[in-house]
Structure formats: C-alpha cells, structure tokens
Write a structure and sequence with these properties.
alpha/beta, globular
C-alpha cells in the first residue's frame, strides 16, 4: 500500500505530491470527456508533464496542450517546475502540471455500530482533518442518522478551520444492503429498513450526499490509495462487525445490476445453520463475523455476554495461551472463511484477494492452514492460484474510501461548473 490513511492528518503536502486515484485508466475512459480523463490522470500521478499525459491517454500532444490550457484557465490545473532529479535537464526546468486542490473539499464518513468516523479531504485527495464520534448501541432513525452525519461534518470543518461553502459533497459508507443509485438503505444492522438516507441527507445539508456499502468503501480505498491503484481486477474481503466484499473489474467498482451485489457475508454455507443478524440462517457471516465468534466465546469462556470486542480479545488471549476450546472457535471460523474465499476465486477468478479490516489482528483467521484449505477447495489445475494479501489499515480507511466516492461523484460537476463560469 502507498501508506496509511491516517498519515499526515494536518494535510501538509510534500513535493512532488504522490497522487491518488486509479493509475490504470480501464475501458471506461472512452465514455468520459477528455478534459475529465486528463484531470483524473493528473490527480492520480500527483504531478505529470504534458508529454506523459499524451502517452498515457493516447491522445495527440496538440490536444493535450489545448485541453490543459483550458483546464488552467478554469483554475483546475496549474503549471509547476518539475524538480524531480530524474527529469531535470540543463537549461529551463521541465514544466509539469498538478491539480489545484484548494477551495474544493469533500467529506467521507463511515457509519458504524460503535464509532462513526469522518475525514475532510481536498480536491487532490489530501486529508485535512479527521474526526470520530461514539455511535449509539441501537438502530437509528433517519433523523438520528442525519444528526450523526451533521455532527461529523461540523467537527471536521471546525478542526480544519474551513468554511462550509467550500464543501462539494459528502460520501457515506455503512454496513448492509444499499441501493447506491437511489441512496436508499434497504437493510442495515445499524439503521431502520428502507431508509432514503441519501435523498434526505442531501436535502437537509444542501449538497450531494452519496451512499454506499462500507465494503465498497474499503475497496475504493484500495483502488484510490492502496494496492489496487495499479491493478485492473481484484477482490477485497472485509472482516469487521460483519463480513463484506468489494470487487474491481476493469478498474471499476462492480456493484451489480441493482447496486447490491457482492454480499459475500450473506451467501449460504449451511442449510438451517447458525442465525445471522440479517434474520436468515446459514450465512457465512454467522460463522466468521465478530458477533458470531463472541456468541461462541461466551460458552467457551463461561462468561456472561459482553461487547463483541471484549469477548474477542479475551477469546484470542485464551487461544494464544493454549485453550483448546478457544482455539477451536478460531479454527472453525477460519475453515468457513476458506470456503467463502474459494467460492470467490471459483466465481470471479481474481488475480488478487485482499483481506482487510480490524479483525485481521486475529491471525488464526488467515493462518497458513486457512489459506491451504482455500487452495484445496479451489479448482486451479493449470493456473496460478489467486494471491492473498493481508492489509491491516487503520480505522479511518473506511471514511477515506467514502471520500473517494465523493471525489469521483463531483469531478464531472466541478468541470462543468468551471467551464460555465
């Protein structure tokens, strides 16, 4: 990965900037205006010369010169001296382009069942401030959720000392089944059913509020800031309070026909099996997620039920100390995870699977035995098996992925507005 999302909370910029966003354009670039392709390429590179833009996007040098001049006139790009030792030559310093990041801000927010988080980023994706608020241990109404979002918006703007007028959009990620196109939360462990969160929050705050599943937010974080920047096809499996999955195909986040695909945690691994928090039985999540392990930990440790975090930490300590019952719980969860991962490989054939989330600190879930069983369950004759990486990002990664969702949504709008001005 290119770095922790929490790095540089004050938002200081080093020269040259590293850039954020996908580095591979993918087939979708043909449907986007050339100006937008150029703007996104500059943001991804951080700083880049016109000749390199021409080569990367396959457009003529003359077109690049014309379009970048227009973008400079719009106040979206600026020329800078490229001080990189590898590109400096005698005479006049080489001129490069970088994004004008100032004055255009977005916020990314993660709604959770214990702790809500937010980041404020500029148009180049640099974090300017972050904030966190405890989440109430109950399902929230539409008004309560909007109140939580509003409190986080004010917190990060105040911490950064920035004006509300600079804010362009807010991205929000949360667990559950989310219709990204309409902004409706169909089901979530945190919120009520059929909640029109996107439209109501947009009306309340007077700016676009884009909603998506939290596993997609982590996948966007990998695509924009992590290992996925240079890969066109990969899968992300998240293990947190639930079990989620995101998929990138041809450098684009895949959501399914109704924006509700890739619910790996709710694929069935046992008929009439354990009860999942979605209300159905036999879901993979009911055997792997923290509440599933905590449910068995209470029996194994002969303790009254406590918060999943407390129970899991105690269970892990007992397993490390040699408690066979505690170890058997992690071993069983690891076998079910191996089954789920083998199904992902068999259906999608990704080059890379990234396992991520807070529960990655419990190494039994991705022990060599788990990955070996995953391979044994997968038909890979004559092919290289999918590579698995473990990424232990910090808590803000979900919110930063939501900020990428907001940046992607407003880039075309910013271009249209700057051209009209």
């Amino acid at each position: 990965m290119t770095g922790s999302p929490e790095a540089d909370p004050a938002g200081s910029v080093t020269a040259p900037p590293q850039g954020v966003g996908p580095l591979l354009p993918g087939a979708q670039r043909e449907v986007r205006p050339l100006r937008q392709q150029i703007l996104e390429h500059v943001r991804a590179q951080g700083r880049v010369a016109r000749a390199e833009i021409s080569r990367a996007l396959g457009i003529s040098a003359g077109s690049v010169t014309t379009l970048t001049s227009e973008l400079i006139a719009m106040g979206l790009l600026r020329e800078v001296e490229n001080a990189s030792p590898a590109t400096t030559t005698r005479g006049r310093p080489r001129v490069a382009l970088e994004l004008v990041a100032e004055g255009r801000l977005v916020i990314g927010i993660k709604i959770s069942d214990e702790r809500n988080t937010a980041v404020l980023v500029d148009f180049a994706g640099t974090i300017l401030a972050d904030a966190a608020r405890p989440a109430p241990p109950m399902r929230r109404s539409l008004d309560q959720t909007c109140d939580e979002i509003g409190a986080l918006i004010e917190a990060v703007l105040t911490r950064a000392g920035r004006a509300r007028e600079e804010l362009l959009a807010v991205g929000v990620g949360l667990s559950g089944m989310v219709d990204h196109e309409t902004g409706t939360v169909l089901w979530s462990p945190h919120l009520g059913p059929d909640m029109p969160l996107g439209p109501e929050a947009s009306r309340r705050f007077g700016l676009p509020v884009i909603i998506d599943n939290d596993a997609n937010m982590l996948t966007l974080a990998e695509l924009w800031f992590g290992a996925g920047r240079e890969r066109s096809d990969f899968a992300v499996v998240t293990i947190e309070h639930g079990l989620g999955m995101g998929l990138v195909i041809d450098n684009r986040l895949y959501r399914g026909e109704r924006s509700m695909g890739l619910e790996l945690g709710h694929t069935k691994v046992q008929l009439d099996g354990a009860l999942c928090r979605c209300g159905k039985r036999g879901c993979l999540e009911a055997y792997v997620a923290d509440y599933a392990l905590a449910r068995e930990a209470a029996t194994a440790l002969a303790r009254a039920p406590q918060s999943p975090q407390v129970m899991l930490d105690a269970l892990y300590a007992e397993a490390k100390a040699g408690n066979r019952a505690a170890r058997s719980i992690f071993d069983r969860a690891g076998r079910y995870l191996a089954l789920g991962l083998s199904n992902v490989i068999q259906i999608f054939d990704p080059e890379l699977i990234i396992l991520s989330g807070e529960r990655m600190r419990y190494d039994y879930l991705y022990a060599e035995e788990v990955l070996a069983e995953m391979s044994a369950l997968t038909l890979v004759e004559g092919r290289m098996p999918a590579r698995v990486e473990i990424h232990a990002w910090g808590d803000l990664v979900w919110a930063r992925g939501a900020s990428a969702l907001a940046l992607a949504a407003v880039t075309g709008t910013v271009l249209a507005g700057a051209r009209a001005a």
